[in-house]
Specification:
Layout (H helix, E strand, L loop, with lengths): L1 H23 L3 H19 L6 H17 L3 H11 L1 H6 L5 H30 L7 H22 L7 H16 L13 H7 L3 H13 L7 H26 L5
Helix pairs in contact: 1-6, 2-3, 3-6, 3-7, 3-10, 4-7, 4-8, 6-7, 6-11, 7-10, 7-11, 10-11
Protein backbone atom coordinates (compact mmCIF):
# COMPACT_ATOMS: atom_id res chain seq x y z
CA UNK A 1 0.00 0.00 0.00
CA UNK A 2 2.75 2.41 0.94
CA UNK A 3 4.75 1.54 -2.18
CA UNK A 4 1.74 2.18 -4.44
CA UNK A 5 1.16 5.53 -2.71
CA UNK A 6 4.80 6.53 -3.21
CA UNK A 7 4.55 5.52 -6.88
CA UNK A 8 1.44 7.69 -7.22
CA UNK A 9 3.23 10.67 -5.68
CA UNK A 10 6.19 10.17 -8.03
CA UNK A 11 3.85 10.02 -11.05
CA UNK A 12 2.04 13.17 -9.93
CA UNK A 13 5.32 15.02 -9.32
CA UNK A 14 6.61 13.95 -12.72
CA UNK A 15 3.41 15.09 -14.45
CA UNK A 16 3.39 18.52 -12.76
CA UNK A 17 7.10 19.09 -13.34
CA UNK A 18 6.95 18.00 -16.97
CA UNK A 19 3.94 20.25 -17.58
CA UNK A 20 5.88 23.21 -16.19
CA UNK A 21 8.98 22.37 -18.22
CA UNK A 22 7.09 22.12 -21.51
CA UNK A 23 5.08 25.29 -20.99
CA UNK A 24 7.27 27.75 -19.10
CA UNK A 25 10.89 27.19 -20.15
CA UNK A 26 10.29 29.04 -23.41
CA UNK A 27 8.38 31.97 -21.87
CA UNK A 28 10.09 35.31 -22.42
CA UNK A 29 10.13 36.42 -18.72
CA UNK A 30 11.87 33.17 -17.77
CA UNK A 31 14.46 33.51 -20.52
CA UNK A 32 15.05 37.22 -19.82
CA UNK A 33 15.38 37.02 -16.03
CA UNK A 34 16.81 33.50 -15.92
CA UNK A 35 19.33 33.62 -18.77
CA UNK A 36 19.83 36.99 -20.44
CA UNK A 37 19.84 39.27 -17.39
CA UNK A 38 22.32 37.33 -15.20
CA UNK A 39 24.73 36.83 -18.12
CA UNK A 40 24.62 40.51 -19.06
CA UNK A 41 25.09 41.50 -15.42
CA UNK A 42 28.07 39.21 -14.99
CA UNK A 43 29.84 40.13 -18.22
CA UNK A 44 29.33 43.84 -17.57
CA UNK A 45 31.31 43.25 -14.39
CA UNK A 46 33.92 40.90 -15.88
CA UNK A 47 34.85 42.82 -19.03
CA UNK A 48 37.98 44.87 -18.65
CA UNK A 49 39.06 43.21 -15.40
CA UNK A 50 42.31 41.28 -15.23
CA UNK A 51 40.84 38.04 -13.88
CA UNK A 52 41.38 34.47 -15.06
CA UNK A 53 38.59 32.15 -16.15
CA UNK A 54 39.24 30.13 -13.01
CA UNK A 55 38.51 33.19 -10.85
CA UNK A 56 35.45 34.25 -12.85
CA UNK A 57 33.68 30.89 -13.25
CA UNK A 58 32.47 30.40 -9.63
CA UNK A 59 30.85 33.84 -9.70
CA UNK A 60 29.14 33.15 -13.03
CA UNK A 61 27.82 29.83 -11.75
CA UNK A 62 26.61 31.47 -8.53
CA UNK A 63 24.66 34.10 -10.48
CA UNK A 64 23.27 31.39 -12.79
CA UNK A 65 22.02 29.24 -9.92
CA UNK A 66 20.48 32.27 -8.22
CA UNK A 67 18.68 33.84 -11.18
CA UNK A 68 17.90 30.76 -13.26
CA UNK A 69 16.67 28.75 -10.29
CA UNK A 70 14.36 31.54 -9.13
CA UNK A 71 13.14 32.54 -12.61
CA UNK A 72 10.60 29.79 -13.32
CA UNK A 73 8.61 29.66 -10.06
CA UNK A 74 7.48 33.31 -9.97
CA UNK A 75 5.82 32.92 -13.37
CA UNK A 76 3.95 29.63 -12.91
CA UNK A 77 1.38 30.16 -10.15
CA UNK A 78 0.16 33.68 -11.05
CA UNK A 79 -0.11 32.73 -14.72
CA UNK A 80 -2.08 29.59 -13.94
CA UNK A 81 -4.31 31.66 -11.65
CA UNK A 82 -5.07 34.00 -14.56
CA UNK A 83 -5.74 31.23 -17.09
CA UNK A 84 -7.86 29.13 -14.71
CA UNK A 85 -5.45 26.19 -14.81
CA UNK A 86 -4.90 26.45 -11.06
CA UNK A 87 -8.57 25.71 -10.32
CA UNK A 88 -8.39 22.52 -12.36
CA UNK A 89 -5.21 21.46 -10.58
CA UNK A 90 -6.74 22.09 -7.15
CA UNK A 91 -9.74 19.98 -8.15
CA UNK A 92 -7.52 16.96 -8.79
CA UNK A 93 -7.09 14.28 -6.07
CA UNK A 94 -3.54 15.42 -5.43
CA UNK A 95 -1.88 16.92 -2.32
CA UNK A 96 -1.12 20.61 -2.65
CA UNK A 97 2.49 20.09 -1.72
CA UNK A 98 2.88 18.04 -4.90
CA UNK A 99 1.99 21.14 -6.92
CA UNK A 100 4.55 23.26 -5.07
CA UNK A 101 7.33 20.67 -5.30
CA UNK A 102 6.52 20.21 -8.99
CA UNK A 103 6.99 23.96 -9.53
CA UNK A 104 10.24 23.88 -7.56
CA UNK A 105 11.58 20.94 -9.58
CA UNK A 106 10.96 22.86 -12.81
CA UNK A 107 13.21 25.67 -11.55
CA UNK A 108 15.69 23.12 -10.21
CA UNK A 109 16.17 21.42 -13.58
CA UNK A 110 16.29 24.75 -15.44
CA UNK A 111 19.09 25.96 -13.18
CA UNK A 112 21.01 22.68 -13.40
CA UNK A 113 20.68 22.56 -17.18
CA UNK A 114 22.23 26.01 -17.64
CA UNK A 115 24.95 25.28 -15.07
CA UNK A 116 25.95 22.03 -16.82
CA UNK A 117 26.26 23.90 -20.13
CA UNK A 118 28.54 26.51 -18.51
CA UNK A 119 30.65 23.88 -16.71
CA UNK A 120 31.14 21.77 -19.85
CA UNK A 121 31.89 24.82 -22.01
CA UNK A 122 34.47 26.05 -19.50
CA UNK A 123 36.11 22.62 -19.32
CA UNK A 124 36.14 21.83 -23.05
CA UNK A 125 36.88 25.22 -24.59
CA UNK A 126 38.57 27.20 -21.81
CA UNK A 127 40.43 24.41 -20.05
CA UNK A 128 39.00 25.23 -16.61
CA UNK A 129 39.42 22.11 -14.49
CA UNK A 130 37.70 21.13 -11.27
CA UNK A 131 39.60 20.31 -8.08
CA UNK A 132 36.66 18.51 -6.45
CA UNK A 133 33.94 17.11 -8.69
CA UNK A 134 32.00 15.82 -5.67
CA UNK A 135 31.89 19.30 -4.11
CA UNK A 136 30.84 20.84 -7.44
CA UNK A 137 27.99 18.34 -7.86
CA UNK A 138 26.84 18.74 -4.25
CA UNK A 139 26.88 22.54 -4.48
CA UNK A 140 25.00 22.47 -7.78
CA UNK A 141 22.24 20.26 -6.37
CA UNK A 142 21.77 22.19 -3.13
CA UNK A 143 21.98 25.64 -4.74
CA UNK A 144 19.59 24.75 -7.57
CA UNK A 145 17.01 23.37 -5.15
CA UNK A 146 17.41 26.31 -2.76
CA UNK A 147 16.95 29.03 -5.37
CA UNK A 148 14.15 27.15 -7.14
CA UNK A 149 12.40 27.06 -3.75
CA UNK A 150 13.01 30.80 -3.41
CA UNK A 151 11.34 31.42 -6.77
CA UNK A 152 8.35 29.35 -5.71
CA UNK A 153 8.16 31.25 -2.41
CA UNK A 154 7.94 34.54 -4.35
CA UNK A 155 5.01 33.08 -6.30
CA UNK A 156 3.02 32.58 -3.09
CA UNK A 157 2.00 36.23 -3.41
CA UNK A 158 -1.78 35.91 -4.08
CA UNK A 159 -2.00 37.64 -7.46
CA UNK A 160 -2.78 36.68 -11.03
CA UNK A 161 -0.20 39.09 -12.47
CA UNK A 162 3.26 37.59 -13.05
CA UNK A 163 4.68 41.12 -13.32
CA UNK A 164 3.81 41.77 -9.65
CA UNK A 165 5.68 38.66 -8.55
CA UNK A 166 8.65 39.46 -10.81
CA UNK A 167 8.81 42.95 -9.32
CA UNK A 168 8.88 41.48 -5.81
CA UNK A 169 11.51 38.93 -6.82
CA UNK A 170 13.82 41.50 -8.42
CA UNK A 171 13.49 43.92 -5.52
CA UNK A 172 15.03 41.17 -3.37
CA UNK A 173 17.38 39.46 -5.83
CA UNK A 174 19.22 42.55 -7.05
CA UNK A 175 20.36 43.84 -3.63
CA UNK A 176 21.26 40.30 -2.55
CA UNK A 177 23.52 39.67 -5.54
CA UNK A 178 25.68 42.70 -4.73
CA UNK A 179 26.38 41.63 -1.14
CA UNK A 180 27.23 38.02 -1.93
CA UNK A 181 30.97 38.15 -2.53
CA UNK A 182 30.60 37.55 -6.26
CA UNK A 183 32.02 40.78 -7.61
CA UNK A 184 34.42 41.29 -4.67
CA UNK A 185 35.78 38.20 -2.83
CA UNK A 186 34.99 37.96 0.88
CA UNK A 187 38.67 38.29 1.83
CA UNK A 188 38.78 41.75 0.19
CA UNK A 189 35.58 43.06 1.75
CA UNK A 190 35.65 45.32 4.82
CA UNK A 191 34.33 43.88 8.06
CA UNK A 192 30.85 45.37 7.63
CA UNK A 193 30.75 44.04 4.05
CA UNK A 194 31.47 40.50 5.22
CA UNK A 195 28.76 40.77 7.87
CA UNK A 196 26.25 41.77 5.17
CA UNK A 197 27.42 38.98 2.87
CA UNK A 198 26.71 36.35 5.51
CA UNK A 199 23.00 37.20 5.21
CA UNK A 200 22.93 35.99 1.61
CA UNK A 201 22.72 32.29 0.73
CA UNK A 202 24.46 33.08 -2.56
CA UNK A 203 27.63 33.80 -0.56
CA UNK A 204 27.86 30.21 0.65
CA UNK A 205 27.16 28.76 -2.79
CA UNK A 206 29.92 30.87 -4.35
CA UNK A 207 32.35 29.96 -1.57
CA UNK A 208 31.71 26.26 -2.16
CA UNK A 209 32.17 26.75 -5.91
CA UNK A 210 35.47 28.56 -5.31
CA UNK A 211 36.60 25.64 -3.15
CA UNK A 212 35.58 23.18 -5.88
CA UNK A 213 37.46 25.04 -8.61
CA UNK A 214 40.40 27.06 -7.34
CA UNK A 215 40.62 26.36 -3.63
CA UNK A 216 40.71 30.13 -2.96
CA UNK A 217 37.63 30.09 -0.75
CA UNK A 218 37.42 32.25 2.37
CA UNK A 219 34.93 30.07 4.27
CA UNK A 220 35.29 26.39 5.05
CA UNK A 221 33.38 24.25 2.49
CA UNK A 222 31.96 22.19 5.36
CA UNK A 223 30.58 25.24 7.16
CA UNK A 224 29.36 26.84 3.93
CA UNK A 225 27.68 23.57 2.90
CA UNK A 226 25.93 23.19 6.25
CA UNK A 227 24.62 26.76 6.15
CA UNK A 228 23.54 26.44 2.49
CA UNK A 229 21.68 23.22 3.30
CA UNK A 230 19.97 24.96 6.21
CA UNK A 231 18.88 27.78 3.90
CA UNK A 232 17.57 25.20 1.43
CA UNK A 233 15.44 23.38 4.01
CA UNK A 234 14.10 26.67 5.37
CA UNK A 235 13.24 28.13 1.96
CA UNK A 236 11.68 25.00 0.44
CA UNK A 237 9.67 24.36 3.63
CA UNK A 238 8.63 28.03 3.69
CA UNK A 239 7.50 27.88 0.05
CA UNK A 240 5.26 24.88 0.75
CA UNK A 241 3.81 26.56 3.84
CA UNK A 242 3.20 29.90 2.09
CA UNK A 243 1.42 28.24 -0.82
CA UNK A 244 -0.78 26.16 1.47
CA UNK A 245 -1.99 29.42 3.00
CA UNK A 246 -2.53 31.37 -0.22
CA UNK A 247 -3.60 28.84 -2.88
CA UNK A 248 -7.30 28.92 -1.94
CA UNK A 249 -7.27 32.73 -2.00
CA UNK A 250 -6.55 32.60 -5.72
CA UNK A 251 -9.79 30.88 -6.69
Amino acid sequence: MKISKINLFVQQLTAVSWKNIKIYYSESPVLIFGVLFPFCLFFAFALGRDLSYLELLPGLLGITFFFAGSAVGPFITPWETRTGTLERLLALPMPRWIMVIGDILAGFFFSLFLAVIIILFAYIFLGVKVISIALLVLTSLIASLLFAGLGSAFAALPTDKPSNVMMLANSIRLPVIFISGIFVPLAELPFWGRILSYISPVTYAVEMLRAAYAGNNYLSPLAAGAILTGFMILVVGGAILFHRRTLTRRI
